[in-house]
Every structure is written in structure tokens, then in C-alpha cells.
Amino acid sequence: QTPPxxxxxxxxxxxxxxxxxxxxxxxxxxxxxxxxxxxxxSAARAGATYLFNEQNRITAxxxxxxxxxxxxxxxxxxxxxxxxxxxxxxxxxxxxxxxRVRVEQRFREFKIPGNKFAQYYSTRFRYMFxxxxxxxxxxxxxxxxxWLLADEIFLHAGEGIHQHFFDRNRLIGGVVWRxxxxxxxxxxxxxxxxxxxxxxxxxxxxxxx
Length: 209
Hints:
Elements: E1 6-16, E2 21-32, E3 38-51, E4 56-68, E5 76-92, E6 95-112, E7 116-137, E8 144-158, E9 166-180, E10 183-196, E11 201-208
Antiparallel strand pairs: 1-2, 2-3, 3-4, 4-5, 5-6, 6-7, 7-8, 8-9, 9-10, 10-11
């Protein structure tokens, strides 16, 4: 893909603090290239979760994204984001499925001609379906090799999108090695079809996770 290859470093945490309440938190840092590891994006996101039951939950929170500017007077193009999501998780014998609907209110900075900056508002809608099942079951039951498939589509509306309501689509597939109930190693391939607003064209991205 172009621009050059990126490395993503991320830490994610989810926890329950009571029967019905929990939280999620993640920090992210992306770099570009192999030699100088130029910063591309920094991000932090946090949310509070309410669990109706083991299958259904809602989460709402805030996220900050900073797009690194190279050779500029300021360090970042800032994005402040509010987000809400609903998750439904089902377990049927050896297959688990997840439906996730997320809505994001995005306040993004753009660099405009004259070395000036403007803030645009847009709303993004995301739907994700994920399924995971046993490929090679072992004993005890919780151990084994699993397959994983997922697809997520992004649509958006608002300022700064040039009337292109399609944002991107992510297709993910791979295998998950489960060594014990709380330890897994996933090897995944992600294909992203994304509309580049600046270049006004569709881009194809290939990612190994």
C-alpha cells in the first residue's frame, strides 16, 4: 500500500467493576517506516459499559486522535470524538458471534490553504459482525485452534466528506490459538477498502495483525 508500511502499537483493557457496570480503555500509537519510525497517529479512548445481561451491553465514551504533522509549527491535527455502541454476543455450541453497532460524533481539524486550520463535524456509523469457532478442538475444551471471520462497514455524513457517505469496509480473517481461557494468540489478515477524501479515490490496504 502507499504511503509506506505502518506499525501499530496498542494497549486495550476491558474490565467489570460490578455485575452490571464495566469500562473499556485503549491507547494507540502508529509509526511509519522501518528506519526512523516517524509518528503518524496517537490516540486514546475510554468508555463506560452497562450490561443488561451476558449477551447485551451498551458503552459510551470519549476519544482523542492526533494526526502527527511533519515539519509544521504545531504537533497534531486534533480530533475529539464522542461514541456510543451496542453489542450483542451469542454462544452457540462451538461458535460465538458478535454484532456491534457504533455511532461516533467526530470534531476533526483539517489543514486548509493559507496554512490555516478549520474544524469540521461529521457523524460516522459503524456495523461489525464477527464469528469465531473451533477449527481443531483440543482437550480440555477451552483449548484449541479457532477460526475467526469479521466484517465492519463505515458510513458517515457531515462536513468535510465531499458527499461521499461510504467511508471504508474492513474484512478480517484468520486463526486464533487458545492456550488457556485467558491466553490467546491471534494471527489475522485485514483487507480494507477505503475512500481517500484528499485524493478522491478508493484505496486498498492490506494488514497483518
